[in-house]
Amino acid sequence: MQILSHRGLWQQAAEKNTMAAFARSFALGFGTETDIRDSAGALVIAHDIPGGGEPALGSVLELMRASACSGPLALNIKADGLQAALSTTMAAYPEIDYFVFDMSVPETLA
């Protein structure tokens, strides 16, 4: 059985999708589900439309790498048109086991 934290291992609702919640999750070796959106040309972690201040996907991936967490990363794609940027970003982290969902089928196949 694999345990996936939902938006990190948060202790209060305001911590969802924050670096603190991801750090807790990765430190315990949990896989993690999170949400990917784009904001000002960058991939960010955000369940809702970004308003500014969201963690960059790259920062979360660096944290996961540094923690040596081997749990899977489940990326819930919240907007169309992110396939190329996400593919390029994830190619820099070959050690991270990840999968995507909620991405449109044509983009997934591309």
Residue runs with pLDDT of under 50 for 5 or more positions: none
The geometry reads as globular
Radius of gyration: 13 Å
CATH topology: TIM Barrel
Reported for the largest beta sheet, the result is: 5 strands, mixed
Which structural class is indicated by helix and strand composition? alpha/beta
| Total beta strand runs | 5
| Oligomer description | single chain
**Average pLDDT metric:** 93
CATH architecture tag: Alpha-Beta Barrel
Treating each run of at least 4 consecutive H or I residues as one helix, how many helices? 4
Assigned CATH superfamily: Phosphatidylinositol (PI) phosphodiesterase
Number of domains: 1
- What is the CATH level 1 assignment? Alpha Beta
Order of helices and strands: EHEEHEHEH
Strand portion, in percent?
15-25%
Give the helix proportion (percent range): 25-40%
Q: What is the terminal separation in angstroms?
A: 31 Å
Short note summarizing the structure:
This protein has 110 residues and is an alpha/beta fold. It has helices at residues 19-27, 57-67, 83-91, 105-109; strands spanning 4-6, 31-39, 42-45, 73-77, 98-101.
Furnish the topology, listing elements before pairings.
Elements: E1 4-6, H1 19-27, E2 31-39, E3 42-45, H2 57-67, E4 73-77, H3 83-91, E5 98-101, H4 105-109
Parallel strand pairs: 1-2, 2-4, 4-5
Antiparallel strand pairs: 2-3
Helix pairs in contact: 1-2
Descriptive key words:
4 helices, TIM Barrel
Could you characterize the architecture of this molecule?
By secondary structure, the protein is α/β, with parallel strands linked by helices. The protein has a single domain (4-109), classed as Phosphatidylinositol (PI) phosphodiesterase (TIM Barrel, Alpha-Beta Barrel). It is 31% helix and 23% strand. It contains four helices and five strands. Strands 1, 2, 3, 4 and 5 form a five-stranded mixed sheet that branches. Helix 1 runs parallel beside helix 2 (57-67). The longest helix is centred in the middle third of the chain and has 11 residues, at 57-67. The chain is globular, with a radius of gyration of 13 Å. The mean pLDDT is 93.
